[in-house]
Every structure is written in C-alpha cells, then in structure tokens.
C-alpha cells in the first residue's frame, strides 16, 4: 500500500510540475504571421534590379522590391563600407525585437569574406539582415532608397511575410 501511495504522490507531483509550464490563460498569443504554403527553398536577390524572389524550386512564391546599403554597387568588403554582400549566404537567425520591425539574418561574413578583410588588416563587418523599416527607416527611406549600412530593407508588412516564410539554413543568393 505504501508503494501505491508513493506512486500516487509521484504522479500528482509530476502533474503539478507539468501545469507550471503551461501558459497562463491571460498570456497574449504572439501576433506573428503564420505561413502554411510550400517551403521556401531559396532566396534570390538581384541587387541591380532591386528585386528579391522567394522560391520553391523554380517557382516564385513571392517577390519584393527593396532598398540596400548606402553604397549599393559592389560586394561588401569591410565594416562601414555601406555595401550589401554578393554571393551565396544562408538564413542564420531571426530577430523578433529588431529596431527595424523584424529581421532575418544573412550569414555574412563567410570564411572567404573574413580572409579577404584580414589581408588588409580590416574587419569585414557583419550583422547583415533582411529587415523592415520601423519608425526610423520610414523616415530615412523618404530621403534615400538605399540608406542601410549594408542590409536589405523592405516594408514592415513585407518583412512580416518574409519572416513567416523563411526557415534557418535557406540559401540566399545575392547577385550584383
């Protein structure tokens, strides 16, 4: 009988602990968009045309116009150069608390980028994102389309879609 009481007590304790992890009924649900379509298998960015494509295989799921770094021509080489990278990168992080509404990380710099900058004793820079505008960007975009330090910027509504559609590891091909 004592083992039955202990078993009952253990089960009651586990149930109480499980209830601790359950969300409170008054906790608001996140307001992020949800995407349930075909997976995005690659992102193709054409800098010169200012056009981004989210693809499933060869099918374009969505496309967007965008702004770039304040020096949009050429491949990013050093911190502060205002250029947006070119080449193959990957989605490597998501920031729901971005000062530019939402942001999706681009895996710049890669090993080649770091090695190039190191030859010159320079920092390659980093923290390249696809992001919205947020309040600050909405003011800047009125003055100049290409205003970031090297990031790719879309409207806040568009970044909500992009944020919902992408997954970590999706390749991002950035063309001149």
Automatic annotation (TrEMBL):
Pathway(s): Cell wall biogenesis; peptidoglycan biosynthesis
Keywords in alphabetical order: Cell shape, Cell wall biogenesis/degradation, Peptidoglycan synthesis, Transferase
Every L,D-TPase catalytic domain range: 41-175
Presence of keyword Transferase: yes
Example of a GO MF term: transferase activity
Superkingdom of origin: Bacteria
GO terms classed as biological process: cell wall organization; peptidoglycan biosynthetic process; regulation of cell shape
Active site location: 131, 151
Gene3D superfamilies given in the database record: L,D-transpeptidase catalytic domain-like (2.40.440.10)
InterPro entries (alphabetical): LD_TPept_cat_dom, Transpep_catalytic_dom
Entry coiled-coil feature ranges: none
CDD domains: YkuD_like
Family under the similarity heading: Belongs to the YkuD family.
Protein name (record): ErfK/YbiS/YcfS/YnhG family protein
Originating species: Paracoccus halophilus
């Amino acid at each position: 009988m004592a083992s039955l009481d202990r078993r009952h007590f253990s089960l009651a304790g586990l149930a109480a602990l499980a209830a601790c992890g359950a969300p409170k009924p008054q906790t608001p649900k996140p307001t992020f968009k949800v995407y349930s379509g075909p997976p995005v298998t690659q992102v193709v960015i054409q800098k010169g045309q200012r056009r981004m494509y989210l693809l499933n295989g060869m099918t374009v799921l969505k496309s967007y116009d965008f702004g770039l770094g304040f020096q949009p021509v050429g491949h990013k080489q050093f911190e502060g150069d205002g250029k947006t990278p070119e080449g193959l990168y990957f989605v490597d992080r998501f920031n729901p608390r971005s000062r530019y509404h939402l942001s999706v990380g681009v895996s710049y710099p890669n090993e080649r980028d770091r090695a190039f900058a190191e030859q010159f004793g320079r920092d390659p820079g980093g923290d390249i994102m696809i992001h919205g505008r947020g309040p600050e960007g909405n003011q800047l975009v009125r003055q100049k389309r290409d205003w970031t330090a090297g990031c790719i910027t879309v409207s806040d509504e568009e970044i909500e879609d992009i944020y919902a559609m992408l997954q970590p590891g999706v390749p991002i091909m950035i063309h001149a």
